[in-house]
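> forwarded from #structure-qc
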């Protein structure tokens, strides 16, 4: 069966005869077809997919995010046809080799999120909601215990995801609510001509603590530079992100939100 045969007719009509490149990297359970000026994302029809469409729509005019061209649910799958963001991912070699340019842009990307007025924001997926979803994933045995930070599990870490979840519930930090991307990793921020050109993958975007973004950005910067994903960039020092933000890092919060993400 051709890859487009399962796509709803309304979307096929918009796509027409345009050529595309499949790209599924970094999208758990999702498929992505990249066209010249648009992108088709398909994923299980779950709350995360619904939140992404909802937040992408709400953020129009507030942040540079893709425009929803068409969305629908069919046969248990969510289909989202959106405009294609200009620029390249923040983990592109061009920027990874220029930390003096990249890291201030990451800080700029974070600040632009936090400057959005959250009054009327439909996204409600903060710490309590994350812990509830984490509990469901633990109960259903869906937590990956292999692709995690060194030391998360084992003799010097937690026994298992249930043990980690209990610790997270018992050590909830105070919340400083802002508009949080929810998964602020380098591939989800687009840059063009040394400016922030867009935000991608908004399924966890909601009002939440700013360290939800700081922690995952710091971790992503570390792993995209230490050779975990291929090339290593020794010129990058992840802690300079805190300098660019003008903050003294709350290391406990950084650790907490990274540990929380281990359950997803």
């Amino acid at each position: 069966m051709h890859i487009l045969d399962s796509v709803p007719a309304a979307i096929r009509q918009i796509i027409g005869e345009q050529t595309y490149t499949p790209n599924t990297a970094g999208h758990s359970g999702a498929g992505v077809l990249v066209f010249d000026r648009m992108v088709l994302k398909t994923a299980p029809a779950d709350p995360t997919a619904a939140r992404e469409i909802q937040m992408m729509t709400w953020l129009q005019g507030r942040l540079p995010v893709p425009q929803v061209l068409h969305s629908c649910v069919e046969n248990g799958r969510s289909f989202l046809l959106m405009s294609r963001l200009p620029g390249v991912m923040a983990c592109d070699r061009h920027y990874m080799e220029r930390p003096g340019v990249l890291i201030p842009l990451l800080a700029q990307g974070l600040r632009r999120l936090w400057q959005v007025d959250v009054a009327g924001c439909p996204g409600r997926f903060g710490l309590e909601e994350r812990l509830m979803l984490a509990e469901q994933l633990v109960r259903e045995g869906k937590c990956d215990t292999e692709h995690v930070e060194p030391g998360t599990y084992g003799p010097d870490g937690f026994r298992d995801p249930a043990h980690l979840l209990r610790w997270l519930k018992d050590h909830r930090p105070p919340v400083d609510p802002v508009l949080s991307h929810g998964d602020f990793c380098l591939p989800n921020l687009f840059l063009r001509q040394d400016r922030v050109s867009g935000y991608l993958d908004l399924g966890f975007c909601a009002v939440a603590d700013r360290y939800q973004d700081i922690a995952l950005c710091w971790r992503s910067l570390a792993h995209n530079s230490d050779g975990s994903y291929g090339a290593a960039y020794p010129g990058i020092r992840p802690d300079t992100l805190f300098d660019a933000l003008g903050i003294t890092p709350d290391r406990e919060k950084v650790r907490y939100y990274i540990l929380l993400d281990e359950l997803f």
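QC bot note: The mean pLDDT is 95. The longest strand covers residues 38-44.
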